[in-house]
Amino acid sequence: MNKTIGAAAAFALAAGAAQAQTGIAIYGIMDAGLLHERGGVAGSVTRVGSGIGSASRIGIRGTEDLGGGMTAVFTLENGTRIDTGEVDAAGTIFNRQAFVGIKGKAGMVTLGRQYTPWHQALTQVGDPFATGYAGGAKNVFPDFGANVRTSNTVIYTTPTIGGFTGDIAYAFGEQAGSGKSGRNVGASLGYVQGPLTVRVAYNHKNSDIAAAPGLIPVVRGNASNKLIAANYDFKVVKAYAAFSADKGINASPLGNTNNPFGGVRPTASTDGNEFLLGLVAPAGPGNVVATLMRKNDKTALDQDARSYGIGYLYGLSRRTTIYTVYGHTVNKNGAGYTVANNTDAGSGDTAFNLGVRHTF
Fold it and tell me: What are the pLDDT digits (tens) for 110-143?
């Protein structure tokens, strides 16, 4: 009897210890607001939008202590449109992130669908709007498609050493008969010291389509994106800057590919760069956030653009923020840059946001 009780107690203690070593959390962002757009062929559009500041999502992340300083990690993240209740990408479930990996003293390796180092540098370091709202970098920076996240990806992330961190990403194209068609390679190196944060990032992708039954091979070659981003906290204001150079087919995809301004369809740049200056300044109970951006198209078409945004973000609590943001873009020589937000590419050259963002 005593042996039975002892065994049961030992099992209970072991189960409790195992549970303590494993952590699973459900998290998410719910973001919705009124969205007014104008300046395109769609005319003046007012609607309820989802994911204006941050894409609405729900996710599951977990860790397990493997001992010896090793931890298993995973993340599954689904994007949702809370204005309609639909998944934000048809035919998918965990379309935003889906990866598993191992973390240890030497760094972390993860495998699955993940963000590119280039996108993370722009969002986390260079853009005060974090690529969201009507004033974010998406207005002129090529933060779309495979520049944002890739499937079939392996990423190694270093530990922080003397303020430095880095990562290397390789996304397999997985096209039969070709080892390079559709593959993506990226890397970044960051440094944090006191009020200063700096990160450089590189993105290299191949857009070829390999020959296969029913498919005609297409050779588009390679494209690259080079980014340097920084911010500095002066206490009274936090300043931001970002510069990206893009070269090659699909290096700089347009957010709205449906000819938003009519006339001759805009051509995505194959050689150009973007520049951003921004700030976050405390004002009353919230923060004023502002950006100035320029797109320099170095091709013969010279389809440049300028964009600016200004907004006010007020935190009702640690998890809930209300916001109002205005953005405007000026296109040159038939360029087709629209005022976007975190989820939508936008339909015109002007947009106004008024909404609420809640995290859990």
Answer: 999 999 999 999 999 999 999 999 999 999 999 9
- Please give the DSSP secondary-structure letter assigned to residue 319: S
Whether this prediction's pTM lies above 0.85 is answered by: yes
Q: What's the Rg (C-alpha) of the chain?
A: 23
DSSP string across 263-279 = SSPP---SEEEEEEEEE
Amino acid letter for position 49: G
What is the distance between the terminal CA atoms of the chain, rounded to a whole angstrom?
47
Q: Number of C-alpha atoms within 13 angstroms, CB side, residue 331?
A: 22
In-domain check, residue 252: yes
The β-bridge relationship of strands 305-315 and 70-81 is: unpaired
CA-to-CA distance for 293 and 288, rounded, in angstroms?
17
Distance CA 328, CA 339 (A): 6
Length of the chain: 360
Within-domain flag for 163: yes
Range of the domain at 62: 24-359
pLDDT digits (tens, 9 = 90+) for 280-326: 999 999 999 999 999 999 999 999 999 999 999 999 999 999 999 99
